[in-house]
Amino acid sequence: MTTARIVILFAVAALAEIGGAWLIWQAVRENRGWWFALLGIVALGAYGFFAALQPDANFGRVLAAYGGVFIAGSLAWGVVVDGFRPTTWDYVGSAIALVGAAIIMFAPGQSTAGEIS
């Protein structure tokens, strides 16, 4: 259950953060209106709460691992929402980032409190 919880919380956090940043981008760069920015601010705030629900107690570890999820999620968002076409190197970099995130969160000897056992 803990592994599923970690993965689900990272996915939801990524949707909130990337979606929030995209909404603000739309407001500022695409002149879509102030309410896009307002919705983006709300989504970015929600991201912080989802990240804080991770079972690991170490802020630095959680946010470092989330960085890998953010990289892959941002590229995926670009593909789905903006029609972005990743290069081979985008895929390679994203895979490396996700492997790094998995190592940080699931390395043997890590407890959910963030202490090495």
Automatic annotation (TrEMBL):
Membrane topology: Multi-pass membrane protein
One CC-aspect GO term: plasma membrane
Localization: Cell membrane
Alphabetized UniProt keyword annotations: Cell membrane, Membrane, Transmembrane, Transmembrane helix
InterPro entries tied to this protein: EmrE-like (IPR037185), UPF0060 (IPR003844)
TM annotation in the entry: 7-28, 34-53, 60-79, 91-109
Family, as annotated: Belongs to the UPF0060 family.
Name of this chain's protein: Uncharacterized protein
Source organism: Microbacterium testaceum
